Amino acid sequence: METDAAIVRRAIEGDERAMRLLWNQHAPHVDAVVRRLAADPDLAEDIAQEVWIQIFRALPSWRGDAKFSTWVHRVAINRALNALRRTKRLAAVETAIEDDSALVEQHSEHTMLAQTIDAAAAKLSPGARTVFLLHDVEGYTHEEIATELGITPGGSKSQLFKARAKLRRLLAPFVETLSSGRTERGPHHNLSSYAGGYGGYAER
Hints:
Elements: H1 4-12, H2 16-38, H3 41-58, H4 68-86, H5 117-121, H6 126-137, H7 142-149, H8 153-179
Helix pairs in contact: 1-2, 2-3, 2-4, 3-4, 6-8, 7-8
């Protein structure tokens, strides 16, 4: 089976079959990463196209010191964040933490039960959602998030606190269902444990 390095070399030389192979292998993951960060299908589609343009332009910069999938993952995140900055969707990243529990009406017929972290995270403000995804799902430190988003580590911590608090309220019924019969796991179990299948490639 051809290695990533061999396929990348052919792609750098302009081999369209190699480019198509790279796209077929990694596009599903790139799409998933971008959709989570953008939380807007149309915007995510546009950003994914930008990501692949950037990937093919930057292929010569991949030196093989990390897995190609890891490199692609990082490019996707960075490009998505850049695109979101342009659309000013990160303007609320450093907003103060407010008590928005009144917005969560778990018993309203107009409110759907959050079945997954994806669905619940989509209900967060853009800033809180982005920090939650980068910290709890992607494993970034607050210092790294601060650098990526142009905020302070304290601002990152505040947004993560806000995101976790709201997600606990949104996911409480779902977590209680999962926890039935498992007394060691209460309804306020760390949300990070539910991100295992949510954060993309395990080896990064």
